[in-house]
Amino acid sequence: MTIRSQQDISEFSELVQARSSALLRTAYLVVGDHQLAQDLLQESLVKAYLAWPRLRDTSRAEGYVRRTIVTTAISWRRRRSFHEPPVEHVPERPGADHTDELATHDLLWELVRDLPPRQRAALVLRYYEDLSEADTADLMGCSVGAVKSQVSVALRKLRERVGADADVLFPDDQAVTR
Prior knowledge:
CATH class of the largest domain: Mainly Alpha
Number of domains: 2
Shape: flat
Order of helices and strands: HHHHHHHHH
Helix content: 55-70%
């Protein structure tokens, strides 16, 4: 084990404090999963810490960590243990196939992410967080009428983008905008 100088520890700590959010964003964009991105960042920072005394130019350490994020993610994907473990017999799954529901959920979230921030916030607070219009208005710092308007416009945009499948995606909410 290499003994670290106080300067090495200090420089590494400064990097972690200053750039962790940006590095986590990079990790997320590489793997597409928040928990996996946190693990990836953690492992990459450990590797950077171990390599710190060998870095010639610590001002370029962020680039080193970003590269480590990418190469570590690639090596994870190559590991047999990363993927589902093999089994001799595939067990039968009781119940309905939820593939269509998952595909619909992914499509809907993609469309919600494309909405303007206030409309997206109003929808998320009202329908995903199940808050009242008054609570949503309080959190958003606007009137209840503004919340109703934002939700209405957002749902209309989602229905327009979905087209003929709108009844499938929004079966319980037809009265809101029609």
